[in-house]
Amino acid sequence: MLNDSQLLREAALVGGAWIEAGEDGIEVRNPASGDLIGRVPNLGAEETQTAIKAAEAAQIDWAARTAKDRSAILRRWYDLMVENADNLARILTMEQGKPLAEAKGEILYGASFIEWFAEEARRVYGDVIPGHAPDKRIVVIKQPIGVVAAITPWNFPNAMITRKAGPALAAGCAMVLKPASQTPFSAIALAVLAERAGLPKGLFSVLTGSARAIGGAMTASDTVRKLTFTGSTEVGIELMRQSADTVKKLALELGGNAPFIVFDDADLDEAVEGAIISKFRNNGQTCVCANRIYVQAGVYDAFAQKLSARLASLKVGDGLDNDTVFGPLIDQNAVAKVAEHIADATGKGAQIALGGQPHSLGGTFFQPTVLTGVTQEMAVAREETFGPVAPLFKFDTDDEVVAMSNDTEFGLASYFYTRDLARAWRVGERLEYGMVGINTGLISTAEAPFGGIKSSGLGREGSRYGIEEFVEIKYLCFGGI
Ligand code: ADP
């Protein structure tokens, strides 16, 4: 169990004060067993306004500190996350379901954003521009945007928070966060560690409760200058609409429909491994998960066979068991969507090469599934499945597969495997996506800009570009020189 019970706290942090959950709090359950983990407070608009007010006050002092000072506190927060990685991973697995090893991977990945932006805090450089008149000088400075609101999803209960809080706090902003109601304890544990690291009171609030009420108060606030959201395109559009009246800056990480292309000249074993990482990580529940796997005709059958054989050897089970590779899905809605996509595909002529059914473990466990004979007319071609289903489409030419890959409203991640360098450049440039993995199924890292185009969202997280999202550019014109 946890060796620091303080990390699993049934309370929210609002403007520097902890609010304990009562009997009427929101229940949080383990998706693997259905067991009650605990409760969190059911907060709304009023508490959100309190948090925003406290953030506004705390931000002024925070922004006035040196970048080095802010950096040191963030670095301590990072160190505490790493020291407590096992505890944080266990909390994450309990509420989210992913296997412990994967959860620990997420904690270290999440922590890496705090580390990276602790370093970047000191490199928010401005510019001096040659003047337009003999007596004038032009200077550009970058200043923190102010109070930032963040809303995060359940699939990465830790990393989706740090990827936003790291750059925001490093830049000198304050943050008011609403984590997903399925996975609030990971967010709360982060707040506990932030306090221990010495983050000033009120600078970082974690509000649990009604998404609509909290989101509504965030978007209505004049004080909140930026909203950063990761979640569904549907909710992202609604938040964008709600933010219009106060002309907020927005960062939106929304849905994807990632193509994963295997060309005839690919290293097939590598491509199978990449497909498993990209398609089945977090049991298919990530926005960069391969959703459509396009395989060139010459290697189609061999790829289908190898992929099915590898998947059949990997264990489905409770994430807390050591040898589990695939955990449960987050809830019954997720199971229904997976079943629906399989039924739609088989109804239109696809075959099941592996799985296809709810798992005998019951609950929200589902068999890893491979479908062959999949075509663009099926629902899996258009919508994100967000589950353990690998649909294999067959193609012949580069032009054909690029056209099929781009035939979607989404533009987040894409992947392809080839050993031909010229093809790698050509296809890489033609894919309409914010991110392209070439001969790899794993592209996310603190050093690189994560984000999408089209309906997949706005803005980039991570990398040196990530901190730019949390500053305003100001131009000082010096005259009379
Ligand atoms: P997912 O498909 O990942 O559950 P959602 O977009 O439904 O994506 O949820 C992502 C986050 O957005 C969660 O924290 C959820 O509580 C929040 N959310 C959902 N609906 C709203 C809304 N109307 N206003 C503000 N936040 C919302």
Automatic annotation (TrEMBL):
Name of protein: Succinate-semialdehyde dehydrogenase [NADP(+)] GabD
Active site location: 253
PANTHER family hit by this protein: SUCCINATE-SEMIALDEHYDE DEHYDROGENASE, MITOCHONDRIAL (PTHR43353:SF5)
Entry keywords, A to Z: Oxidoreductase
Top-tier EC class: oxidoreductase
NCBIfam families per UniProt: SSADH
Domain of life: Bacteria
Gene3D superfamilies: Aldehyde Dehydrogenase, Chain A, domain 1, Aldehyde Dehydrogenase, Chain A, domain 2
All residue ranges annotated as the Aldehyde dehydrogenase domain in the record: 18-475
EC number: 1.2.1.79
Residues of the signal peptide: none
GO biological process, one term: gamma-aminobutyric acid catabolic process
A cellular component annotation (GO) from this entry: cytosol
Gene Ontology MF: a single term: succinate-semialdehyde dehydrogenase (NADP+) activity
InterPro entries: Ald_DH/histidinol_DH, Ald_DH_C, Ald_DH_CS_CYS, Ald_DH_CS_GLU, Ald_DH_N, Aldehyde_DH_dom, Aldehyde_DH_Superfamily, Succ_semiAld_DH
UniProt similarity note: Belongs to the aldehyde dehydrogenase family.
